[in-house]
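Supplementary notes (optional reading)

For those who missed the lab, this is the record we used. Protein: CHAT domain-containing protein. Length: 717 residues.
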Amino acid sequence: PAPGEIDATAAAELNSGVPLNRRLGVSETVALTQGEKATILDAQALQLKGTALRLQGDLPGARTALDAALAQLVAVREGRVSSITRLRAQTLAEQAAVAEASNDQPRAEGLLRQSVLLLETEYPQSAALNAAKARLAGFLGRRGQVQPALTLYKEVVTAMTASGAGTTGFENLLAPYFALLARQIPSQPALVEDFFLASETLVRPGVANTQAVLARELSGGSDEASRLFRQSVNLTRDIERSRIEYARLAALPAPTPDEQQRSAQIATAIEALAADQVATQARLGQFPRYRAISTQAMTLADLRKALRPGEAYYKLAAIGDALYAIFVTPDDATAYRTGIGTKALERKVDALRDTISIVENDQPVTYPFDVKQARELYMALMQPIDAKLATVKNLMFEPDGAMLRLPANLLVMEQPAVDAYLKRIAADPKADTFDFRGIHWLGRDIDVSTSLSARAFRDVRNAAPSAAPREYLGLGHNQPVSPLVQLTSTRSAPTRGGIDCDWPLAAWNNPIAATELNTAQSVIGRNSARVITGAAFSDTALLAQPDLNQYRILHFATHGLVTAPRPECPARPALLTSFGGPKSDGLLTFREIYDLRLDADIVILSACDTAGKATVAATREAGVTVGGGDALDGLVRAFIGAGGRSVLASHWPLPDDYGATERLISGLFNAKPGTSIGEAIRAGQDVLMAKAETSHPYYWAGFAIVGDGAQPVLKQR
């Protein structure tokens, strides 16, 4: 280059930290040649071939392919190419798996330790390093080295929680850890703290997807929460880059004085960046939009502090086919593997749901509830803590697996009433099989609420109450539409491959009656309660509404659309509204909900199946488990992010007969001021349980309180 000119080679040296790279033997001044790239691709192909052969049981063939892959990777610039470090580590892990399967345990352990060492140098505190350590811990556990395995697993979990990043799909690597802990907890009760913290790192794929969607919404905003969120993301990246550079400097066998000085500077910079991150996240924690997407774990001690006397937190964790439970009170905690696997749980929940509400020939049908299975499920999930529940008045339930779509309050606590029911219907062919009076449901004497996570529960409990001056805003009874309105709508999602992915007009032409809304308004009083229905209840009107944050309670009585309109279409979970003009699609999507600005203590979603079963695609976007589940996390998390503290959602289409739903809503708002949501709902449910015609769970168990059930319904009347 000409004097003073910086060409491509010089720029590469300036941007890559030449002194450090030269000491490591890495040359970044010349990009990888075509031959080197081809060698890396060939090595990757060999690594995949070796993995496939191992899975097929061809261990000699796998060993040959993997040895060749590693040799080719190391041959590229003597293995000193950072970009292939992860591939080298993966190849070492595969070689270890072959060695273990060949009963060469010393070689297997050595290869796993090489993989860890390689990643510690190049990618410290990374997900790849945590995965490598978890593989080594799993190997140690299989070899009977329980304590070293537990120590290493704990190191992995500590690193994951410190980074604030839950890892989707990591449960396979941590599955042996949970199994080890569950076996050790009876003799070492203190290990329940490690069990709980490990469970906090698990993020269901659907939840991760919802959080990613909402995080993009937050990142693209222009308010203070969005600015702080972008700042936090940038700080995280800066910290990771600095740690990588610091680790490489620390690996130098004989650093020069300049390199020692640089290392000290980086250490100081990391400390300052970490302090900035703590301060930034503390400020972010004040915004509900951030709390709704935060993956930061909390400790068991923190959860205990949030619980009050007479309260308990029950958490399920589905890991493979194993289902674990954690039970926490202010002064006690335990964890155990439940008596049912995740696949068996799916079948049992399906069977129970089919006796509650199922569609046959386009009509909802209810069958006699299977109390025998409900009792069996209670015993499978809660037998180890059955005696402890006797002193619990308020139970926070964090579901997982199939229990995401079944309210826990309909589980049966005692056997005698079940026996009496079965004996009665067996003895008399004309006996009323829908009469479940006398059954001791879990929700009969205990206020049961649902929690999205332990942190979400703690955050809601610690959040300042709403400062909204008005009590209630009811929204629903959309206006039926004509084909002309649909044709002029422009906000619907584009069709894919010519397929019409709009919901059919029939969805809008069967609005839910405004009876619940009018009942609530009459109970609370028109001076403090407002109801919006018909044409005024449109998505565009709501998005433009300037005073939504002026109401403590928002009540939506409308259809919840959580599945795709057709199997080949993408799912767009939403609440159905009236059409509101050219820019309206008649839907309030969970992304639009997240962008609302609310100050509500309670959001009521008495919509059809807003917490019920949906398609796989719907559950991924709505934020729940893969393979079916519900829309609970998505819509609820969006409302919490918008500024709602607690959400009352329905598990199935609410009944119209016997005035059951109206009586529940009326009872909710007729409760004296200061009565908690959980207590008010349970009081209404108890009334329905006590009457033969409404004692079936279909009539009283549909609502789920998501958040803090101890919050008051009304402050004043």
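If you only remember one thing from this example: Residues 209-291 form one domain.
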